[in-house]
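Forgive a beginner's question, but might I ask you for the amino acids of a protein and the tokens describing how it folds?
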Amino acid sequence: DSFKVSPDLDLVEKIRDIVALYLNPPVAAVVFAVDEKPQIQALNRTAPTLPMLPTTPARATHDYERNGTCDLFAALNIASGAVITDIRKTHTSEDFIAFLNKVNRNVPSELDVHVVLDNLSAHKTPKVHQWLLRHRRFHFHFTPTYGSWMNLVERWFSALTTKKLQCSAHRSVKELAADIESWAATWNENPTPFVWHKSAQQILERLAGYCSAVTAQNISASR
């Protein structure tokens, strides 16, 4: 396992803000965890995968053909577990705004929209700021630097990867996009929300304990 302690100067405030959204979401509002999964590869094995049989696992060649890539945008509804997706060729600021427009169309007009997202530069361009000024019900909540573990949509991306992408073969980007959209549609038929358990105080105490231990080790080493 590996990890990195965030150097974000607003680390404590961001942790408290996002955990509060997860554990005590605001009334008359919907909370989305939003991110992009870029450069998903359309891979096809060089020979057909042999199916699983009794006492024999499925077998696939170790090599594969690359048939292009696509970028997946996803917004996970924290309360319901339902996901809004959009597949594009790139993940520029313009693509991000187009996805925000799709989210906007899918949320009743009387609800505020709180969005948890990371610090990608495409999320903070002047065009995005202008879009937010025109859509006052949207509120952005940025995860700490190196804090993607706080974005619950990453759990959905993980499920997509392990349950679909890793065991599939695609001869084109079109096939890949159709497969992703089909899997997401099936997920939304019976969505499962990911439940956040740790309080902000528990997270900060764990982090403080680690920092204290590292500081003590450094002092001992310097002596």
About this structure: The chain has a mean pLDDT of 91. The helical segments are 11-23, 93-105, 126-134, 153-163, 173-189, 200-222. The two ends are 30 Å apart (CA to CA). DSSP finds six helices and five strands in the chain.
